[in-house]
Specification:
The structure is a homodimer of 141-residue chains. Chain A is of the alpha+beta class and 141 residues long. Helices cover 41% and strands 22% of the residues of chain A. Chain A contains six helices and six strands. In chain A, strands 1-3-2 form a three-stranded antiparallel β-sheet. Chain A has a three-stranded mixed β-sheet with strand order 5-4-6, with no helix packed on it. In chain A, α1 packs across α2. The longest helix of chain A is centred in the middle third of the chain and has 13 residues. Chain A is globular and about 40 Å long. Chain B binds a DNA duplex (25 and 25 nucleotides) through α5.
DNA sequence: GTAATTGCAAATACTTTGCCACGTA
DNA sequence: TACGTGGCAAAGTATTTGCAATTAC
């Protein structure tokens, strides 16, 4: 088993969550995905489809988000997107507004300094950011 | 009347939209607002509440978004937010995840260079970005 | 044994559309 | 006059909750 899976489950356990089949499969699914996924996508995906109800996935995501194991993203669609938070990793995204494709951007994120500035000037706590680029991808153009 | 209102209405006219009372009031409302607003907020706001139906505001926003007069933002809430696009102006936002307050960030946006890089490397067209900082504001902390 | 977790179904919230009346160009 | 626009009400989509049954610890 991917050590990151074990690690992530450990974080959940420490947060007081029980180790259920659904939790495991959800984490594996999120980890396997290269991009954020919606609740509907997650609930319909192979690992989870026969494993548990959509409401369960919803409540799991909710709990995991509370404990900063996943993050809920906007990404402009009607449905919310979720992605696993891996300590030390951060992604910004490039999204095609025509076909809806989503890809993570590799380049180092250029906003850390501004984030630090905001932290100091405004006194906000637990600051994090979300950065997305939208446009028409070459295929759709 | 604020010259920006006239200017914006002109842009709408050029896009083929008719100059209606609802259009005018919507643009004024968006322009007066310091921050993005939801459809519900807009439809309930003084200028529009007695002026027109929520469906009308919805369809107006839709048309305006198509013609890049307004932009639809995610901002993490269940409801979508809308903001007027003023040529040459761009805002990033700082949002409190507890009380939901939204404020525009004054600091110059640090991602233009990355945006340019992406434009060149990926061939995406009509590129723009959305950047938000989330955290707990001093009041809520 | 006890409290967290789950499934199912029902309730909400927000968005979107149909259809006919109306107003702008 | 012609076609974009508006109002009202209904339908659609995604999210959220209640409650009893189940499961992890």
């Amino acid at each position: 088993m991917n050590p990151l899976v074990k690690e992530t489950i450990d974080r959940c356990r420490k947060a007081g969550l029980r180790r259920t089949k659904a939790l495991e499969e959800l984490i594996i699914t999120l980890l396997e995905s290269e991009r954020p996924m919606t609740l509907a996508e997650l609930a319909a995906s192979g690992r989870l489809a026969d494993q548990c109800d959509k409401a369960t996935v919803f409540r799991l995501l909710q709990r995991l988000a509370e404990h900063a194991v996943v993050r809920r993203l906007g990404l402009h669609e009607r449905a919310a997107y979720f992605t696993l938070l891996v300590p030390g990793k951060h992604s910004d995204y490039l999204i095609c507004t025509k076909c809806g494709s989503i890809e993570a951007i590799q380049a180092p994120c250029p906003v850390h300094q501004l984030e630090e500035e905001i932290r100091q000037k405004t006194g906000y706590r637990n600051l994090y950011h979300e950065l997305e680029f939208f446009g028409t991808c070459p295929k759709c153009a």
